[in-house]
């Protein structure tokens, strides 16, 4: 039995700070909360970790990262053609470690769009972390992002490659028409993907045309959802434009990524359907586009101001919003920048903490994490202050436990 003692702990359901903060851990689970909680064996082998003035939180969750991109040594100009899968995996080890030590104990790795020869690198990374070979967060992997030829997540479009350079296969996610998108979904599932990521509209950082333009037809969207849902997997869709969001919701997409151009009608449809939004709003403040092509800079100038208001409109309209950074758009290990950005958009710290815990758990369909409660996974972090009053303390995590094991203290 292990007991954590701290100055307080946050109840993310009520938004209350409970003092003192006492948690009892057995194995990988929380078995008691509070000074008078049951679960203490009284054994002389019981251990106590005194965390002093820290405040305890459930492990945070980031619903949009790509641990196989970004990090040390990567360059946007050369890495797409120079970095082979083994090098990407080695870089991902550092990205995963930094993410965990930042207090993010669960992430969705939301779709590779790099040349891998068909290997699902994020699935391999998940297995290595789960088996304890390397340190990192729990990963829900999407495999390869599924996108049409010339779509926003077609890397030959993002990097403006000439014809024939870096062409991707259906297995690597570039798929056109109902038959190919079905095959692409089936391939990801066959090799271990736990959700499906698709590109439903244009984006900012590519020359794929207007950021809000719908990229897959309604028929193709329905086919993707049908394949995934029949196998019990959720579908997340990169989508900006309001019309594209409406089409994605009508097709049964489970989660909209970004949604910078959503309108009231799209918000109402998302609420009615129970569609989640992962807003990735911090990148509007921090993503450097100064060296990008003029057309990309023009799109950013239009989109980023709207990104700063869309998430508040969605929250006020009743949409369920979860935290996501689109890392490495936000550097790996700096994921809490998104929490700070959400508060700057007008959300309360309590709303933001819920978005990074209980709502994120809903997005991935789990009930074993997201709160500090008996029976749940002992994914616990400690911060130097009350995040209900100052969300920036989440940028200074001082203690990390995942599954009852201490990773950073």
Question: How does the SSE layout of this entry go?
Answer:
Elements: E1 2-6, E2 8-11, E3 16-18, E4 21-26, E5 29-33, E6 47-50, E7 55-58, E8 60-65, H1 79-82, H2 85-101, E9 104-109, H3 121-130, E10 138-141, H4 155-158, H5 177-190, E11 196-199, H6 218-230, E12 235-241, H7 242-251, E13 255-261, H8 264-273, E14 276-278, H9 283-286, H10 294-317, E15 320-322, H11 337-344, H12 349-355, H13 358-363, E16 380-383, E17 399-402, E18 405-408
Parallel strand pairs: 1-6, 2-7, 8-9, 9-10, 11-12, 12-13, 13-14, 14-15
Antiparallel strand pairs: 1-4, 2-3, 4-5, 7-16, 16-17, 17-18
Largest sheet: number of strands, sense, barrel closure: 6 strands, mixed
Q: What is the gyration radius calculated from CA atoms?
A: 21 Å
- Shape type: globular
Would you count the extended β strands for me?
18
- Spans with pLDDT under 50 lasting ≥5 residues? none
| Mean pLDDT value | 93
Q: DSSP helix count?
A: 13
Percent strand: 15-25%
Given helix and strand content, the structural type is: alpha/beta
How much helical structure, as a percent, in the residues? 25-40%
């Amino acid at each position: 039995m292990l007991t954590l003692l701290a100055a307080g702990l946050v109840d993310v359901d009520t938004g209350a700070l409970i003092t003192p903060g006492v948690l009892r851990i057995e194995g990988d689970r929380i078995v008691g909360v509070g000074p008078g909680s049951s679960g203490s064996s009284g054994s002389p082998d019981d251990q106590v970790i005194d965390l002093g003035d820290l405040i305890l939180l459930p492990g945070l969750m980031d619903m949009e990262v790509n641990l196989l991109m970004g990090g040390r040594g990567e360059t946007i100009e050369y890495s797409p053609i120079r970095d082979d899968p083994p090098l990407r995996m080695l870089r991902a080890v550092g990205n995963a470690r930094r993410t965990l030590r930042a207090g993010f104990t669960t992430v969705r790795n939301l779709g590779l769009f790099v040349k891998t020869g068909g290997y699902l690198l994020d699935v391999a990374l998940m297995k290595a972390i789960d088996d304890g070979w390397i340190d990192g967060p729990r990963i829900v992997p999407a495999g390869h992002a599924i996108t049409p030829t010339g779509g926003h997540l077609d890397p030959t479009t993002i990097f403006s490659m000439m014809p024939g350079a870096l062409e991707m296969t259906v297995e690597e996610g570039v798929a056109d028409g109902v038959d190919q998108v079905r095959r692409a979904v089936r391939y990801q599932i066959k090799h271990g993907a736990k959700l499906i990521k698709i590109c439903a509209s244009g984006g900012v950082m590519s020359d794929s045309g207007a950021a809000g333009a719908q990229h897959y037809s309604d028929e193709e969207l329905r086919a993707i959802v049908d394949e995934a849902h029949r196998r019990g997997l959720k579908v997340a869709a990169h989508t900006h434009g309001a019309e594209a969001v409406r089409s994605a919701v009508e097709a049964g997409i489970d989660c909209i990524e970004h949604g910078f151009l959503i309108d009231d009608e799209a918000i109402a449809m998302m609420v009615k359907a129970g569609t989640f939004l992962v807003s990735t709003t911090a990148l509007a403040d921090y993503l450097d586009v100064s060296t990008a092509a003029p057309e990309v800079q023009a799109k950013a100038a239009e989109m980023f101001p709207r990104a700063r208001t869309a998430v508040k409109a969605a929250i006020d309209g009743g949409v369920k919003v979860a935290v996501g950074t689109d890392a490495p758009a936000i550097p790996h290990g700096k994921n809490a920048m998104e929490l700070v950005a959400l508060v700057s958009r007008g959300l309360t710290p309590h709303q933001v903490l819920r978005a990074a815990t209980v709502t994120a758990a809903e997005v991935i369909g789990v009930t074993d994490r997201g709160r500090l409660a008996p029976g749940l996974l002992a994914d616990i972090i400690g911060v130097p202050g009350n995040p209900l009053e100052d969300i920036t303390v989440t940028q200074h995590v001082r203690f990390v436990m995942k599954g009852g094991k201490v990773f950073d203290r």
